[in-house]
Automatic annotation (TrEMBL):
Residue stretches making up the Secretion system C-terminal sorting domain: 199-265
Pfam family for this entry, one: Por_Secre_tail
Organism per entry: Lacinutrix gracilariae
Protein name: T9SS type A sorting domain-containing protein
Lineage: Bacteria, Pseudomonadati, Bacteroidota, Flavobacteriia, Flavobacteriales
InterPro entries membership: Secre_tail (IPR026444)
Length: 266
């Protein structure tokens, strides 16, 4: 009986530990109308992982804007795109204000090792006829149009991470990297006076607060290597509790210009 109990306990512990290994997706603004989507693991791989197929749905304001210049960044593998108009999505529960773009890297093989928190570049793309208002965002699997397509629009990351079986390890989106506000790019590149915006506390451990009389358009946080680690839309409070201890650069975009601040997370 004790032996059986031990085996059952070990089995359940293994399942729990295994299920906690996952990847989150993040939408990154590279420059101008160029973007990329990355996967960020919450674990160090013990060896090479074998990435099979990956996909997600990108939502854009309805209209003439389009996803173009798609370049696969997983060993150069090609990605496909399936576009769904706002009118089509209405039949699936959409509100008629967004077009959908399903991007998919078909089954194949990409061998890689990674560390926890590392950005794994999945695919880059451009937005043609880019709007000046509204936002681009990643579609949640729990949204009605995803549910009504029986998972056809779901985000997923199928991989064999331990040499056993290929499974879906997608777990959600990185906080602050779920969307991009197009109004940010129309903000004047005016550098504001240093005392016009306060970012506090500094050092911080849980949240950063931003105090300004101007309207905040977007806030971006970069590490010392220049990698964007946080992106918040129109928010004056940013959760930094998940960021490693260190020095970071905070860029605050407002309707009157922008400012850059150096902060410490401890």
């Amino acid at each position: 009986m004790k032996t059986n109990y031990f085996i059952l306990t070990f089995f359940l512990f293994s399942i729990l530990t295994f299920s906690q290994q996952n990847y989150e997706f993040g939408l990154i603004h590279v420059s101008n109308n160029n973007f990329k989507v990355v996967a960020i693991p919450n674990f160090d791989s013990s060896g090479n992982t074998d990435v099979s197929d990956v996909g997600f749905t990108l939502m854009l304001p309805a209209g003439t804007s389009d996803v173009s210049d798609i370049t696969g960044l997983l060993s150069g593998r090609a990605w496909s795109i399936n576009r769904l108009t706002a009118e089509t999505l209405i039949t699936l529960g959409g509100d008629g204000t967004e077009d959908g773009n399903l991007l998919n890297c078909p089954p194949g093989q990409t061998i890689l090792a990674h560390t926890s928190g590392e950005q794994i570049d999945l695919v880059s793309f451009s937005i043609s006829n880019m709007p000046t208002t509204g936002e681009m965002r990643l579609l949640y699997n729990t949204e009605i149009i995803a549910i009504n397509t029986a998972g056809a629009l779901d985000s997923f990351y199928n991989s064999n991470i331990d040499g056993t079986t290929t499974q879906n390890y997608f777990s959600g989106f990185v906080s602050g990297l779920e969307s991009f506000n197009f109004e940010t790019l129309s903000t004047e590149t005016v550098q504001l006076e240093d005392n016009s915006i306060q970012v506090y506390p500094n050092p911080a451990s849980d949240y950063l607060n931003i105090a300004t009389k101007h309207t905040i358009k977007q806030v971006e946080v970069f590490d010392v290597l220049g990698k964007k680690v946080k992106q918040n839309i129109s928010s004056n409070k940013i959760n930094v509790s998940q960021l490693p201890v260190g020095i970071y650069i905070v860029k605050v975009f407002t309707d009157k210009g922008q400012i850059t601040k150096k902060i410490v997370i401890e």
